């Protein structure tokens, strides 16, 4: 369960004024599949960074499974896994085996290697255990990033445009893996077909939630917005 309780983010801008990235927002996300859509720069990643505790709200509070991200940041980060569009941003080790093993550092060394091998074989990267990460294809890198994140067994996965850089085949592969996960997955996406498969869609515009509800209703609002309608005229009452 993810909760925003009047949570907002404002930063000091270059001119010494303040800039609101997310207006105070109250939201409880308990659905297993949530999609967040919105234009570039609308505040989607800000919302995700709040939920993983990387960013603390400047007003209100954010709770993950009841833990306040401001007070219990380290424990929250233990509960939440993050997957970004660009796997380069999160692959830290020289080989796939070492990268997955890093997420398993709580295990004794031998078990760590065995478990990392098992996980890589399961996702189809068994033939690439020791291949330099830099030489993997983009799709293989994203699959590795996902495997490393999941190895830590997060309770919640936040995926920020996880398939944006993938070709159709890799996109389908990564989406199928994400769809099959037992844990809650919140996905930021520009892919409206993927968003339509969620149980709930949240639409962000100008740092505000402007629609929130079933995919059909919320995506209708988003399409209206993208067609140039101001939020107050775009389809409302998505819930
Ligand atoms: N630390 C910061 N200081 C100033 N402005 C910021 C900061 N972080 C984000 N912003 C601005 O806040 C706005 C929202 O950014 P955010 O990354 O949340 O958007 P987004 O919806 O995820 O966009 P995209 O789809 O392009 O990734 C942008 O205009 C961005 O430049």
UniProtKB/TrEMBL annotation:
Q: Name one Pfam family in it.
A: ABC_tran
Matches recorded under InterPro entries? AAA+_ATPase (IPR003593), ABC_transporter-like_ATP-bd (IPR003439), ABC_transpr_CbiO/EcfA_su (IPR015856), ECF_ABC_transporter_ATP-bd (IPR050095), P-loop_NTPase (IPR027417)
Q: Is Transport among this UniProt entry's keywords?
A: yes
PROSITE patterns for the chain: ABC_TRANSPORTER_2 (PS50893)
Question: Matching SUPFAM superfamilies, A to Z?
Answer: P-loop containing nucleoside triphosphate hydrolases (SSF52540)
List the Gene3D superfamilies: P-loop containing nucleotide triphosphate hydrolases (3.40.50.300)
Claim: Cell membrane is one of the keywords in the record: no
> Which Gene Ontology molecular function entries are recorded, alphabetically?
ATP binding
> Which residue numbers delimit the ABC transporter domain?
2-231
CDD domains per UniProt: ABC_cobalt_CbiO_domain1
> What UniProt keywords apply to this chain's record, in alphabetical order?
ATP-binding, Nucleotide-binding, Transport
The family classification in the record reads: Belongs to the ABC transporter superfamily.
Give the protein name, as stated in the record: ABC transporter ATP-binding protein
**Species in which this protein is naturally found:** Flavimobilis rhizosphaerae
